C-alpha cells in the first residue's frame, strides 16, 4: 500500500502499525480524530459509500410527516408517504436548488419550496409550479413535471432505524443487517415498543464514542454499576463478535444491564442460552439487545471534535406503555443517562488528549480491546479501498 491522502495524513508507518496483529499493533494516530481533512475523507470515502443510519422511523409516525436530515453533509428529506412507507429524497428543489424543508412537519399532503412555491407530492413528483408562466396555475406542459421530481435516495428500515445508501451501490440492506438479524432471530424483538428517546452531543470524535462502547477495559474504573467482565480466575466473560458489517461483543447470564421490565420473549422452540449483545453495524449504528431492552443509538459526526447521538429504548409492549411499568421505565432511563454521562466525561478527555503534541504511540490490550482493533482496521481498510476505486 502506498500513496493516497489517508497515508499522507496518518503517515505510512501509522497505517501499517494499525494493520499489524493486535499484540504488536498501534491504535489510530491522533490525526484520525483531530484533522479536518481526515474527517472530510471519512465522510466521502465511508459515510457516503455505505449504509448509514440517519433517523428513527418513530420520528415520522404518520402519513405526511417529514423531517430534514443531514446525511454526511448531504441534505435529505425523510418522509412517510400516503401508504405509510418511509422514503428519502434529496432536500433540494429542482428549480433553483433551494432546500425545501428546514424543520419537521406533520400531516402534509405536499411539500412546498419556500423560494418559488414549487410543490412536491409525498411520492416525490412535482405537482405544481405556480406563476411559472404568469398564471396562478401554470398551463399544462409549461414545465416538464415528469422529469423534475425530487431525486430519491435509497433507504430502508431495520429495528426502527432508518438507513440510507447515498451511493446507491451498497449491498441490499437485508444483506447488510443479516449477521445481526441472525443473532437476534431467537428473540421476539418485534414485540418491543418505543419506551424512551433521548438526544445529545459530545465534544469528541465519533470514533471515540464507538470505541468507548466497544471496550470493557474502562468499565471497572468508570462504571461502578456495571457487572464484572472477568471471572474470579481472570478469564473473559464476554466474547468479541465480528462478521461483515457487524462488530461488538456478547455475553450470557443475568446482568445489571437488564431493566426491571419483562424480558423480551424467546420464540417458541428457541433452545438457546439467553445472550446479550452490544453490536455495531459499520460505520455509525449501535444496536444492543439486553434481555429486556433493545437500545438503538445513531452516532452522527458533526465535526472532527463533535458528535451527535440519538438513542431510542424499546421494551416489550406492556412495559413500554401504560402506568404499570412507569417506575421501571423511569429507572431504566436514569440508569442509562448516568452511564452515558460517565462515558461522556472520559471520551471528551480522550479527545482533549489527542490535541497534545505528546499524543501518539497508542497501544491496545489484546485481552480487552480486540473489537477496537477490528473497528479501526475496518475503517482504514474501507478508506484505502475507496481511494483505489
How would you explain this protein's 3D organization?
The protein has 389 residues and is an alpha+beta fold. 27% of the residues lie in helices and 26% in strands. The protein contains 10 helices and 16 strands. It has a 7-stranded antiparallel sheet, with helices on both faces. A 6-stranded antiparallel sheet has the order 1-9-8-4-3-2. Strand 2 and strand 3 form a beta hairpin. Helix 4 packs across helix 10.
Short description:
The protein is of the alpha+beta class.
Main sheet record: 7 strands, antiparallel
Structural class designation: alpha+beta
How much of the polypeptide forms β-strand, as a percent range? 25-35%
Please trace the helix and strand order, writing H or E for each element: HHHHEEEEEEEEEHEHHEEEEEEHHH
State the distance separating the first and last CA atoms: 14 Å
Number of strands: 16
What percentage of residues falls in helices of 4 or more residues?
25-40%
Count the helices. How many? 10
Gyration radius (Cα, Å) is: 23 Å
Name the average pLDDT.
Answer: 93
How would you write the strand order of the largest sheet?
Answer: 10-16-15-14-13-12-11
Described by the principal axes of the CA atoms, the overall outline is: globular
